[in-house]
């Protein structure tokens, strides 16, 4: 057998060892003629070339979905079998793909490798960073097809679309009231639980929501931000 002098990995054939050594040297002699991306082995280049073609020769027998490579088909098939071979050693959560496990482990390690160049905020996923950077720009690439309202994040567009569809996926387990957003459900649940997290520093009266505390504080401050258009009389609340 042929052995790598750097990592001691062994190979049956000398050409396999030669190809392996490129991992250590960084040499990538095989270049894609379409996008100039480079690879250590000709096999990797062959796989990559399928990205540029519409050819998808590998078919799923269950759902007929097509794939460019046998490895992608094999990975996809685990969805149908329910197989999740990659388990988290911290919380036992399981994953179909090892890449998803690696991403998940960042939750436990606290690793956030994607950093915003503007404010320094860090993220677990590159997509989260991409969504975040839209906050710093005036760009709103996600537009509602119904009312043309635009959003800087696709998640906000999805929430907005529920206004038009009437979809309310978040349901209260106590009274079955439904909500468009999870945040609205969380607020609502405090009514059932009697949780009053917001306390007045002056009279110690407690409230379920921060907005209610804010309104209450006007009693102590005398602030009356709402005025009548006709007689200029002022009020604590708009209602």
TrEMBL record:
SUPFAM superfamilies: beta-beta-alpha zinc fingers
Domain C2H2-type stretches: 2-29, 30-57, 58-85, 86-113, 114-141, 142-169, 170-197, 198-225
GO molecular function, one term: DNA binding
Keywords on record: DNA-binding, Metal-binding, Nucleus, Repeat, Transcription, Transcription regulation, Zinc, Zinc-finger
Statement: the UniProt record of this protein carries the keyword DNA-binding: yes
Pfam name, any one: zf-met
Top-level taxon: Eukaryota
Localization, UniProt: Nucleus
GO CC aspect terms: chromatin; nucleus
Gene Ontology biological process terms in this record: epigenetic regulation of gene expression
Protein name: C2H2-type domain-containing protein
């Amino acid at each position: 057998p042929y052995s790598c002098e750097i990592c001691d990995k062994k190979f049956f054939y000398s050409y396999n060892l030669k190809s392996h050594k490129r991992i250590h040297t960084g040499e990538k002699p095989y270049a894609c003629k379409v996008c100039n991306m480079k690879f250590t082995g000709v096999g990797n280049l062959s796989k990559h070339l399928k990205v540029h073609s519409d050819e998808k020769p590998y078919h799923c027998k269950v759902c007929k979905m097509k794939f460019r490579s046998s490895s992608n088909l094999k990975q996809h098939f685990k969805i149908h079998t329910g197989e999740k071979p990659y388990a988290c050693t911290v919380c036992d959560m399981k994953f179909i793909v090892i890449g998803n496990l690696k991403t998940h482990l960042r939750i436990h390690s606290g690793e956030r490798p994607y950093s915003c160049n503007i404010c320094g905020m860090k993220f677990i996923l590159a997509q989260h960073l991409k969504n975040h950077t839209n906050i710093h720009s005036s760009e709103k690439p996600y537009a509602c097809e119904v009312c043309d309202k635009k959003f800087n994040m696709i998640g906000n567009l999805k929430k907005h679309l529920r206004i038009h569809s009437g979809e309310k996926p978040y349901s209260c387990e106590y009274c079955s009231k439904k909500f468009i957003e999870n945040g609205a459900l969380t607020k609502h649940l405090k009514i059932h639980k009697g949780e009053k997290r917001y306390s007045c520093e002056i009279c110690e009266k407690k409230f379920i929501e921060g907005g209610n505390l804010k309104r209450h504080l006007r009693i102590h401050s005398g602030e009356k931000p709402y005025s009548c258009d006709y007689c200029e009389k002022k009020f604590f609340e708009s209602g």
